[in-house]
């Protein structure tokens, strides 16, 4: 289901619960409940209505993620990619306690799992095949290859202070990496900084949302309170994506080339 279809369903559900509200004036990146004047019972009815209309389960633990219209749409799109009857994210885990999950994206089976040291060749191929623009937006580099030292840094992570997840597909019997997301815990141990990169052919597919929600789930489950990132001011698509996930934006007066995006977990 496309995001716009989900957005229309969310708005129709809101209209059924709060018919007096002018939904045309909703700001999609701002807190939703104050804009529509929903009390606690109304909000529970909205969640129940969305669950019924979209045939998705919305666990109570996830209610805190449904803050803005954009974040609700992104969350529901993520839930809709889950295969019917597939195990929950806690069912299949590696030795480090991180989940392996299966999703269908663009009609293709995609595995999201923790990165491993033996993924170094996959990571190298992934970076090599990124467009110059995507490579610069992610690594601030225009070179086609990154050093072996950097590749080891990206793949040999402890999955505690440096957590990294990858999305892979099977192509002619071999795994191909099509996306990666990671965070590094700050010195205070209460927040983290994230980074995400998606193969150009998978831009706009919803894969970035799947990876970011999985990463935020890990950070939240480990007690981290905030997540932040730094985005080039020219990367309008990433800034829009961050807003949809509920990140606020702050311009750094000392660095006009980047924008700090931040959200509470």
How far apart the termini lie comes to: 26 Å
Percent helix among the residues? Answer: 25-40%
Find the CATH topology of the largest domain. Aminopeptidase
Report the top-level CATH class of the largest domain: Alpha Beta
Major sheet: order of its strands? 1-2-3-4-5-6-8-7
Instruction: Just name the CATH architecture of the largest domain.
Output: 3-Layer(aba) Sandwich
Largest sheet: 8 strands, mixed
Task: Give me the number of helical elements.
Answer: 9
The CATH H-level homologous superfamily of the largest domain: Gcn5-related N-acetyltransferase (GNAT)
Task: Name the descriptors.
265 residues, alpha+beta, Non-ribosomal Peptide Synthetase Peptidyl Carrier Protein, Chain A, Aminopeptidase, 8-stranded mixed β-sheet, 9 helices
């Amino acid at each position: 289901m496309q995001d716009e279809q989900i957005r229309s369903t969310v708005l129709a559900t809101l209209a059924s619960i709060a018919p007096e509200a002018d939904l045309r004036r909703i700001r999609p990146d701002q807190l939703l409940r104050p804009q529509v004047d929903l009390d606690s019972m109304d909000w529970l009815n909205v969640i129940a209505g969305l669950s019924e209309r979209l045939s998705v389960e919305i666990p109570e633990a996830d209610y805190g993620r449904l803050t803005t219209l954009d974040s609700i749409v992104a969350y529901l799109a993520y839930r809709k990619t889950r295969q019917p009857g597939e195990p929950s994210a806690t069912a299949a885990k590696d030795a480090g306690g991180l989940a392996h999950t299966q999703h269908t994206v663009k009609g293709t089976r995609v595995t999201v799992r923790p990165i491993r040291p033996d993924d170094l060749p996959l990571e190298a191929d992934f970076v090599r095949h990124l467009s110059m623009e995507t490579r610069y937006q992610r690594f601030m580099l225009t070179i086609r290859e990154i050093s072996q030292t950097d590749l080891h840094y990206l793949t040999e992570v402890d999955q505690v202070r440096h957590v990294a997840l990858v999305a892979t597909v099977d192509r002619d019997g071999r795994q191909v990496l099509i996306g990666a997301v990671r965070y590094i815990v700050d010195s205070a141990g209460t927040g983290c900084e994230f980074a995400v990169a998606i193969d150009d052919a998978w831009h706009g597919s919803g894969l970035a949302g799947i990876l970011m929600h999985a990463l935020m789930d890990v950070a939240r489950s480990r007690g981290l309170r905030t997540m932040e990132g730094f985005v080039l001011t020219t990367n309008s698509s990433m800034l829009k994506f961050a807003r949809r996930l509920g990140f606020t934006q702050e311009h750094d007066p000392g660095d006009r080339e980047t924008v700090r995006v931040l959200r509470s977990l």
